[in-house]
Design goal:
Elements: E1 2-6, H1 11-21, E2 25-30, E3 43-46, H2 48-56, H3 60-65, E4 72-76, E5 83-86, H4 87-94, E6 99-102, H5 103-112, E7 119-122, E8 126-130, E9 133-136, E10 142-143, E11 146-149, H6 156-162, E12 169-182, E13 190-196, E14 199-204, E15 211-219, H7 231-242, H8 249-256, E16 262-270, E17 276-277, E18 280-282, H9 285-288, H10 297-314, H11 319-348, H12 353-368, H13 371-379
Parallel strand pairs: 1-2, 1-11, 2-7, 4-13, 11-18
Antiparallel strand pairs: 3-6, 4-5, 8-9, 9-10, 12-15, 12-16, 13-14, 14-15, 17-18
Helix pairs in contact: 1-10, 2-10, 4-13, 7-8, 10-11
Bound molecules: flavin-adenine dinucleotide.
Length: 404
Protein backbone atom coordinates (compact mmCIF):
# COMPACT_ATOMS: atom_id res chain seq x y z
CA UNK A 1 0.00 0.00 0.00
CA UNK A 2 1.48 3.38 -1.08
CA UNK A 3 1.20 6.30 1.30
CA UNK A 4 2.18 9.90 0.52
CA UNK A 5 2.91 12.34 3.36
CA UNK A 6 3.15 16.08 2.72
CA UNK A 7 5.55 17.74 5.22
CA UNK A 8 8.86 16.61 6.74
CA UNK A 9 9.07 18.50 10.03
CA UNK A 10 7.80 16.57 13.09
CA UNK A 11 4.49 14.81 12.29
CA UNK A 12 5.67 13.75 8.80
CA UNK A 13 8.83 11.84 9.81
CA UNK A 14 7.19 10.27 12.91
CA UNK A 15 4.31 9.02 10.76
CA UNK A 16 6.73 7.85 8.06
CA UNK A 17 8.81 5.95 10.63
CA UNK A 18 5.87 3.99 12.02
CA UNK A 19 4.24 3.34 8.64
CA UNK A 20 7.52 1.97 7.33
CA UNK A 21 7.92 -0.16 10.44
CA UNK A 22 4.43 -1.61 9.79
CA UNK A 23 5.42 -2.45 6.22
CA UNK A 24 3.77 0.35 4.20
CA UNK A 25 5.49 1.94 1.18
CA UNK A 26 6.05 5.57 2.21
CA UNK A 27 6.97 8.74 0.29
CA UNK A 28 7.35 12.16 1.95
CA UNK A 29 7.18 15.38 -0.08
CA UNK A 30 8.56 18.55 1.54
CA UNK A 31 8.44 22.11 0.22
CA UNK A 32 11.82 23.24 1.63
CA UNK A 33 14.84 22.51 -0.60
CA UNK A 34 16.58 20.32 2.01
CA UNK A 35 15.97 18.61 5.36
CA UNK A 36 15.66 20.95 8.35
CA UNK A 37 19.04 21.34 10.04
CA UNK A 38 20.08 21.65 13.64
CA UNK A 39 19.82 25.10 15.23
CA UNK A 40 16.80 26.41 13.29
CA UNK A 41 13.23 27.04 14.38
CA UNK A 42 12.05 27.65 17.93
CA UNK A 43 11.94 25.68 21.16
CA UNK A 44 9.23 22.98 21.33
CA UNK A 45 8.17 20.52 24.02
CA UNK A 46 7.88 16.77 24.21
CA UNK A 47 5.90 15.46 27.18
CA UNK A 48 5.65 11.93 28.58
CA UNK A 49 3.51 10.16 25.90
CA UNK A 50 5.57 11.69 23.07
CA UNK A 51 8.82 10.81 24.86
CA UNK A 52 7.63 7.20 25.18
CA UNK A 53 7.00 7.09 21.42
CA UNK A 54 10.42 8.52 20.49
CA UNK A 55 11.95 6.09 23.01
CA UNK A 56 10.42 3.22 20.98
CA UNK A 57 11.84 4.83 17.83
CA UNK A 58 15.31 4.64 19.40
CA UNK A 59 15.95 8.41 19.22
CA UNK A 60 15.11 9.50 22.77
CA UNK A 61 18.75 9.66 23.93
CA UNK A 62 19.72 11.76 20.91
CA UNK A 63 16.77 14.05 21.64
CA UNK A 64 17.81 14.44 25.28
CA UNK A 65 21.37 15.20 24.13
CA UNK A 66 20.03 18.10 22.02
CA UNK A 67 17.75 19.54 24.75
CA UNK A 68 17.88 23.34 24.96
CA UNK A 69 19.05 23.20 28.58
CA UNK A 70 16.98 26.26 29.53
CA UNK A 71 16.75 26.20 33.30
CA UNK A 72 15.57 29.65 34.31
CA UNK A 73 13.38 32.51 33.12
CA UNK A 74 14.32 36.02 34.21
CA UNK A 75 11.25 38.23 33.90
CA UNK A 76 11.47 42.03 33.89
CA UNK A 77 8.77 44.70 34.11
CA UNK A 78 9.03 48.36 33.12
CA UNK A 79 9.67 49.09 36.82
CA UNK A 80 10.67 46.91 39.78
CA UNK A 81 13.23 44.17 40.26
CA UNK A 82 13.36 41.19 37.88
CA UNK A 83 11.99 37.86 39.14
CA UNK A 84 13.53 34.51 38.26
CA UNK A 85 11.45 31.40 37.64
CA UNK A 86 13.11 28.02 38.14
CA UNK A 87 11.92 26.26 34.95
CA UNK A 88 13.29 22.87 36.06
CA UNK A 89 10.94 22.97 39.01
CA UNK A 90 8.04 24.05 36.80
CA UNK A 91 8.58 21.28 34.25
CA UNK A 92 9.08 18.63 36.92
CA UNK A 93 5.66 19.60 38.28
CA UNK A 94 4.06 19.58 34.82
CA UNK A 95 5.57 16.37 33.44
CA UNK A 96 7.35 13.21 34.58
CA UNK A 97 9.30 13.08 31.33
CA UNK A 98 9.73 16.37 29.48
CA UNK A 99 12.32 17.59 26.98
CA UNK A 100 12.53 21.04 25.42
CA UNK A 101 14.38 20.98 22.08
CA UNK A 102 14.67 23.28 19.06
CA UNK A 103 12.10 22.30 16.41
CA UNK A 104 14.70 21.82 13.67
CA UNK A 105 17.01 19.74 15.89
CA UNK A 106 14.08 17.40 16.52
CA UNK A 107 13.19 17.39 12.84
CA UNK A 108 16.75 16.53 11.82
CA UNK A 109 16.90 13.61 14.28
CA UNK A 110 13.55 12.27 13.06
CA UNK A 111 14.61 12.65 9.43
CA UNK A 112 17.88 10.80 10.10
CA UNK A 113 15.91 7.98 11.74
CA UNK A 114 13.81 7.51 8.58
CA UNK A 115 15.78 8.66 5.52
CA UNK A 116 17.34 5.29 4.69
CA UNK A 117 13.95 3.52 4.54
CA UNK A 118 11.57 6.22 3.35
CA UNK A 119 11.55 8.10 0.02
CA UNK A 120 11.96 11.85 0.61
CA UNK A 121 11.30 14.39 -2.16
CA UNK A 122 12.44 17.93 -1.33
CA UNK A 123 11.64 21.25 -3.04
CA UNK A 124 8.25 20.04 -4.20
CA UNK A 125 4.59 20.39 -3.32
CA UNK A 126 1.27 18.75 -4.19
CA UNK A 127 -0.84 20.75 -6.65
CA UNK A 128 -3.93 18.51 -6.91
CA UNK A 129 -5.41 15.37 -5.38
CA UNK A 130 -8.07 13.51 -7.33
CA UNK A 131 -9.09 10.40 -5.41
CA UNK A 132 -5.63 8.73 -5.31
CA UNK A 133 -4.11 10.61 -8.29
CA UNK A 134 -1.63 13.21 -7.07
CA UNK A 135 0.03 15.90 -9.16
CA UNK A 136 3.07 17.87 -8.03
CA UNK A 137 4.74 21.17 -8.89
CA UNK A 138 7.89 19.39 -10.14
CA UNK A 139 7.68 15.59 -9.89
CA UNK A 140 5.61 13.45 -12.24
CA UNK A 141 2.02 12.60 -11.24
CA UNK A 142 1.62 9.38 -9.23
CA UNK A 143 -1.09 7.26 -7.66
CA UNK A 144 -1.25 6.68 -3.89
CA UNK A 145 -3.68 4.75 -1.71
CA UNK A 146 -3.55 7.26 1.13
CA UNK A 147 -2.43 10.91 1.24
CA UNK A 148 -1.64 12.57 4.58
CA UNK A 149 -1.25 16.31 5.17
CA UNK A 150 1.48 16.79 7.79
CA UNK A 151 2.24 20.22 6.37
CA UNK A 152 1.57 22.44 9.34
CA UNK A 153 -0.85 25.14 10.39
CA UNK A 154 -1.14 26.57 6.85
CA UNK A 155 -1.52 23.10 5.34
CA UNK A 156 -1.61 22.76 1.57
CA UNK A 157 -3.31 19.35 1.69
CA UNK A 158 -6.02 20.74 3.98
CA UNK A 159 -6.66 23.65 1.60
CA UNK A 160 -6.84 21.29 -1.41
CA UNK A 161 -9.18 18.89 0.39
CA UNK A 162 -11.30 20.98 2.77
CA UNK A 163 -11.09 24.53 1.39
CA UNK A 164 -9.70 27.85 2.62
CA UNK A 165 -8.02 28.01 6.01
CA UNK A 166 -10.13 30.99 7.14
CA UNK A 167 -13.13 28.64 7.47
CA UNK A 168 -11.43 26.62 10.18
CA UNK A 169 -9.36 29.09 12.21
CA UNK A 170 -10.18 31.05 15.32
CA UNK A 171 -7.85 33.88 16.30
CA UNK A 172 -6.84 33.73 19.98
CA UNK A 173 -6.20 37.47 20.30
CA UNK A 174 -2.43 37.65 19.84
CA UNK A 175 0.53 37.56 17.44
CA UNK A 176 4.02 36.20 17.85
CA UNK A 177 7.34 36.66 16.11
CA UNK A 178 10.55 34.63 16.47
CA UNK A 179 13.82 35.54 14.79
CA UNK A 180 17.49 34.71 14.96
CA UNK A 181 19.84 37.19 16.68
CA UNK A 182 23.50 36.90 17.72
CA UNK A 183 23.84 35.46 21.24
CA UNK A 184 25.39 38.78 22.31
CA UNK A 185 24.18 38.31 25.93
CA UNK A 186 26.02 34.97 26.07
CA UNK A 187 22.92 33.25 27.40
CA UNK A 188 23.44 29.73 28.63
CA UNK A 189 20.45 28.04 30.24
CA UNK A 190 18.63 31.33 30.84
CA UNK A 191 15.72 32.90 29.00
CA UNK A 192 15.21 36.65 29.55
CA UNK A 193 11.93 38.49 29.01
CA UNK A 194 10.35 41.86 29.57
CA UNK A 195 6.60 42.11 30.01
CA UNK A 196 4.23 45.05 29.87
CA UNK A 197 0.49 45.53 29.25
CA UNK A 198 -0.36 43.68 26.03
CA UNK A 199 3.21 42.92 24.95
CA UNK A 200 6.19 40.81 25.82
CA UNK A 201 9.69 40.48 24.32
CA UNK A 202 12.57 38.21 25.16
CA UNK A 203 15.64 36.27 24.13
CA UNK A 204 16.87 32.68 24.66
CA UNK A 205 19.47 30.33 23.30
CA UNK A 206 20.13 26.59 23.47
CA UNK A 207 23.20 24.83 24.81
CA UNK A 208 24.62 23.89 21.38
CA UNK A 209 23.46 26.93 19.33
CA UNK A 210 25.79 29.68 18.07
CA UNK A 211 23.00 32.25 17.87
CA UNK A 212 19.93 33.08 19.99
CA UNK A 213 16.20 33.57 19.33
CA UNK A 214 14.34 36.78 20.00
CA UNK A 215 10.64 36.34 20.69
CA UNK A 216 7.95 39.05 20.54
CA UNK A 217 4.35 38.52 21.69
CA UNK A 218 1.66 41.10 21.04
CA UNK A 219 -1.96 41.24 22.17
CA UNK A 220 -4.34 43.23 19.95
CA UNK A 221 -8.08 44.02 20.13
CA UNK A 222 -8.67 43.13 16.46
CA UNK A 223 -6.93 40.79 14.01
CA UNK A 224 -4.47 42.52 11.66
CA UNK A 225 -5.20 42.95 8.01
CA UNK A 226 -1.99 41.37 6.66
CA UNK A 227 -0.79 38.40 4.65
CA UNK A 228 1.17 35.79 6.59
CA UNK A 229 4.06 36.01 4.09
CA UNK A 230 4.28 39.86 4.01
CA UNK A 231 7.56 40.04 5.97
CA UNK A 232 8.31 43.75 5.50
CA UNK A 233 4.93 44.76 6.90
CA UNK A 234 5.26 42.35 9.80
CA UNK A 235 8.65 43.80 10.77
CA UNK A 236 7.23 47.32 10.56
CA UNK A 237 4.38 46.28 12.86
CA UNK A 238 6.86 45.07 15.46
CA UNK A 239 8.78 48.37 15.25
CA UNK A 240 5.50 50.31 15.67
CA UNK A 241 4.30 48.33 18.67
CA UNK A 242 7.61 47.81 20.55
CA UNK A 243 9.69 50.94 19.74
CA UNK A 244 9.13 52.50 23.20
CA UNK A 245 9.85 49.37 25.24
CA UNK A 246 13.01 49.51 27.36
CA UNK A 247 15.73 46.97 28.38
CA UNK A 248 17.18 45.08 25.36
CA UNK A 249 14.19 45.71 23.09
CA UNK A 250 15.81 48.52 20.99
CA UNK A 251 18.80 46.23 20.30
CA UNK A 252 16.53 43.30 19.38
CA UNK A 253 14.52 45.57 17.05
CA UNK A 254 17.75 46.70 15.39
CA UNK A 255 18.65 43.02 14.79
CA UNK A 256 15.22 42.48 13.27
CA UNK A 257 16.17 44.45 10.16
CA UNK A 258 18.96 42.07 9.14
CA UNK A 259 18.03 38.75 10.78
CA UNK A 260 18.67 35.70 8.56
CA UNK A 261 15.51 33.95 9.78
CA UNK A 262 12.19 35.51 10.70
CA UNK A 263 8.82 34.04 11.65
CA UNK A 264 5.61 35.98 12.30
CA UNK A 265 2.11 34.60 12.68
CA UNK A 266 -1.14 35.03 14.51
CA UNK A 267 -1.83 32.78 17.48
CA UNK A 268 -4.80 30.97 16.06
CA UNK A 269 -6.57 27.71 16.65
CA UNK A 270 -7.76 25.20 14.06
CA UNK A 271 -11.21 23.73 14.54
CA UNK A 272 -12.26 21.08 12.01
CA UNK A 273 -15.01 18.57 12.81
CA UNK A 274 -13.18 15.85 10.91
CA UNK A 275 -9.64 15.53 9.49
CA UNK A 276 -10.39 12.93 6.84
CA UNK A 277 -12.08 12.93 3.45
CA UNK A 278 -11.83 10.04 0.98
CA UNK A 279 -8.20 8.87 0.81
CA UNK A 280 -6.92 12.01 2.53
CA UNK A 281 -6.35 12.68 6.21
CA UNK A 282 -4.45 15.25 8.26
CA UNK A 283 -2.06 14.97 11.20
CA UNK A 284 -0.22 17.32 13.58
CA UNK A 285 -0.61 21.09 13.22
CA UNK A 286 -2.29 20.63 9.82
CA UNK A 287 -5.18 18.88 11.56
CA UNK A 288 -5.49 20.17 15.10
CA UNK A 289 -3.08 22.95 15.97
CA UNK A 290 -4.46 24.31 19.26
CA UNK A 291 -2.35 27.48 18.75
CA UNK A 292 1.41 27.91 18.21
CA UNK A 293 3.31 28.30 21.51
CA UNK A 294 0.23 27.85 23.71
CA UNK A 295 -1.03 24.28 23.40
CA UNK A 296 1.87 21.80 23.45
CA UNK A 297 1.15 20.92 19.83
CA UNK A 298 4.49 19.19 19.16
CA UNK A 299 3.63 16.42 21.61
CA UNK A 300 0.23 16.14 19.99
CA UNK A 301 1.82 15.92 16.52
CA UNK A 302 4.00 12.98 17.68
CA UNK A 303 1.13 11.21 19.44
CA UNK A 304 -1.30 11.78 16.53
CA UNK A 305 1.20 10.43 13.98
CA UNK A 306 1.83 7.34 16.09
CA UNK A 307 -1.92 6.69 16.43
CA UNK A 308 -2.64 7.24 12.72
CA UNK A 309 0.10 4.82 11.66
CA UNK A 310 -1.05 2.30 14.28
CA UNK A 311 -4.68 2.46 13.13
CA UNK A 312 -3.69 1.99 9.47
CA UNK A 313 -1.75 -1.10 10.55
CA UNK A 314 -4.51 -2.34 12.85
CA UNK A 315 -7.05 -2.07 9.99
CA UNK A 316 -4.66 -3.68 7.50
CA UNK A 317 -4.74 -0.57 5.33
CA UNK A 318 -8.56 -0.13 5.27
CA UNK A 319 -8.13 3.62 5.32
CA UNK A 320 -11.77 4.55 5.94
CA UNK A 321 -11.95 2.39 9.08
CA UNK A 322 -8.49 3.48 10.18
CA UNK A 323 -9.27 7.21 9.78
CA UNK A 324 -12.46 6.82 11.84
CA UNK A 325 -10.68 5.17 14.78
CA UNK A 326 -7.72 7.53 14.50
CA UNK A 327 -10.09 10.47 14.90
CA UNK A 328 -11.82 8.81 17.87
CA UNK A 329 -8.51 7.94 19.58
CA UNK A 330 -7.05 11.45 19.31
CA UNK A 331 -10.34 13.42 19.57
CA UNK A 332 -10.48 13.88 23.34
CA UNK A 333 -6.81 14.96 23.49
CA UNK A 334 -7.49 17.54 20.77
CA UNK A 335 -10.58 18.94 22.51
CA UNK A 336 -8.76 19.26 25.83
CA UNK A 337 -5.76 20.91 24.15
CA UNK A 338 -8.03 23.46 22.49
CA UNK A 339 -9.51 24.41 25.88
CA UNK A 340 -6.06 24.60 27.47
CA UNK A 341 -4.68 26.75 24.64
CA UNK A 342 -7.51 29.30 24.88
CA UNK A 343 -6.77 29.74 28.61
CA UNK A 344 -2.99 29.83 28.01
CA UNK A 345 -3.34 32.45 25.26
CA UNK A 346 -5.33 34.66 27.66
CA UNK A 347 -2.77 34.44 30.46
CA UNK A 348 0.42 34.43 28.33
CA UNK A 349 0.36 38.18 27.57
CA UNK A 350 -1.02 40.27 30.45
CA UNK A 351 -3.85 42.66 29.53
CA UNK A 352 -3.00 45.32 32.11
CA UNK A 353 -0.87 46.17 35.13
CA UNK A 354 -2.92 43.95 37.41
CA UNK A 355 -2.20 40.92 35.24
CA UNK A 356 1.52 41.80 35.10
CA UNK A 357 1.46 41.90 38.90
CA UNK A 358 -0.40 38.55 39.02
CA UNK A 359 2.17 36.98 36.68
CA UNK A 360 5.08 38.12 38.84
CA UNK A 361 3.37 36.85 41.99
CA UNK A 362 2.59 33.49 40.40
CA UNK A 363 6.33 33.12 39.70
CA UNK A 364 7.16 34.04 43.29
CA UNK A 365 4.65 31.46 44.52
CA UNK A 366 6.10 28.68 42.35
CA UNK A 367 9.58 29.59 43.60
CA UNK A 368 8.66 29.35 47.30
CA UNK A 369 6.51 26.19 47.08
CA UNK A 370 8.54 23.09 47.97
CA UNK A 371 9.00 20.93 44.84
CA UNK A 372 6.89 17.97 46.12
CA UNK A 373 4.00 20.34 46.90
CA UNK A 374 4.01 21.97 43.45
CA UNK A 375 4.26 18.49 41.88
CA UNK A 376 1.33 17.20 43.92
CA UNK A 377 -0.78 20.29 43.13
CA UNK A 378 -0.02 20.00 39.41
CA UNK A 379 -0.95 16.28 39.40
CA UNK A 380 -4.51 17.20 40.35
CA UNK A 381 -4.75 19.32 37.21
CA UNK A 382 -5.11 16.84 34.33
CA UNK A 383 -7.13 19.31 32.22
CA UNK A 384 -4.52 22.04 32.59
CA UNK A 385 -0.80 21.82 33.17
CA UNK A 386 -0.75 17.98 33.37
CA UNK A 387 -2.89 17.62 30.24
CA UNK A 388 -0.19 16.11 28.03
CA UNK A 389 1.19 13.69 30.60
CA UNK A 390 -2.30 12.45 31.43
CA UNK A 391 -2.98 11.17 27.88
CA UNK A 392 -3.12 7.38 27.57
CA UNK A 393 -1.95 6.08 24.18
CA UNK A 394 -2.75 2.61 22.83
CA UNK A 395 0.29 0.39 22.22
CA UNK A 396 0.53 -0.56 18.53
CA UNK A 397 3.97 -2.15 18.56
CA UNK A 398 2.46 -5.62 17.97
CA UNK A 399 1.88 -4.60 14.34
CA UNK A 400 5.63 -4.27 13.62
CA UNK A 401 6.46 -5.60 10.18
CA UNK A 402 3.01 -7.24 10.07
CA UNK A 403 3.00 -7.11 6.31
CA UNK A 404 6.36 -8.82 5.74
C1 LIG B 1 6.85 30.52 17.13
C2 LIG B 1 6.37 29.17 17.53
C3 LIG B 1 6.59 28.75 18.82
C4 LIG B 1 6.17 27.47 19.20
N1 LIG B 1 6.41 27.06 20.46
C5 LIG B 1 6.06 25.81 20.81
C6 LIG B 1 6.32 25.34 22.13
O1 LIG B 1 6.84 26.07 22.98
N2 LIG B 1 6.00 24.05 22.40
C7 LIG B 1 5.43 23.22 21.49
O2 LIG B 1 5.20 22.05 21.78
N3 LIG B 1 5.13 23.65 20.26
C8 LIG B 1 5.41 24.92 19.90
N4 LIG B 1 5.12 25.37 18.65
C9 LIG B 1 4.38 24.49 17.73
C10 LIG B 1 5.26 23.49 17.01
O3 LIG B 1 6.25 24.13 16.23
C11 LIG B 1 4.35 22.64 16.13
O4 LIG B 1 3.30 22.10 16.89
C12 LIG B 1 5.08 21.46 15.50
O5 LIG B 1 6.19 21.93 14.76
C13 LIG B 1 4.07 20.70 14.63
O6 LIG B 1 4.73 19.86 13.76
P1 LIG B 1 4.11 19.51 12.33
O7 LIG B 1 5.07 18.55 11.73
O8 LIG B 1 2.68 19.14 12.48
O9 LIG B 1 4.09 20.90 11.54
P2 LIG B 1 5.28 21.89 11.18
O10 LIG B 1 6.40 21.77 12.14
O11 LIG B 1 4.66 23.22 10.97
O12 LIG B 1 5.81 21.33 9.79
C14 LIG B 1 5.11 21.39 8.59
C15 LIG B 1 6.05 20.98 7.48
O13 LIG B 1 5.34 20.96 6.27
C16 LIG B 1 6.10 21.63 5.28
N5 LIG B 1 5.20 22.17 4.27
C17 LIG B 1 4.41 23.26 4.33
N6 LIG B 1 3.74 23.43 3.19
C18 LIG B 1 4.10 22.40 2.38
C19 LIG B 1 3.74 22.03 1.08
N7 LIG B 1 2.90 22.76 0.34
N8 LIG B 1 4.27 20.90 0.55
C20 LIG B 1 5.16 20.15 1.28
N9 LIG B 1 5.56 20.48 2.52
C21 LIG B 1 5.03 21.59 3.07
C22 LIG B 1 6.84 22.71 6.04
O14 LIG B 1 7.96 23.19 5.33
C23 LIG B 1 7.22 21.95 7.30
O15 LIG B 1 8.41 21.24 7.14
C24 LIG B 1 5.51 26.64 18.26
C25 LIG B 1 5.28 27.09 16.96
C26 LIG B 1 5.70 28.34 16.61
C27 LIG B 1 5.45 28.79 15.21
Amino acid sequence: MRILISGASIAGPVLAYWLDRYGFDVTVVERTPAPRKTGGGHAVDLFRPAMQIVEQMGVADQIRAKATGTEALVLRRPTGKPVTLDLRKLFTAVSDNHVEIMRDDLSELLYNATCSDVDYIFADSITAIDDGEVTFERSRAQRFDVIVGADGLHSNVRALTFGPESEFTTWLGAYLAIFSVPNYRELDGVMEMIVDSGRMAGIYSAAHMDDARAGFFLRLPQPLDYHHRDIERQKQLLHNHFHDMKWEVPRLLAELDHTPSFYFDSIMQLRLDTWSRGRVTLVGDAAYCPGPAVGGSTSMAVVGSYILAGELAAHAGDHAAAFATYEREIGEYVRRSRGFAVTAAKSLIPRGRLEVWAMVNAIRLINVLPAPVSRAAAKLNTKGVRLHDSIAVRDYTGFDRMRE
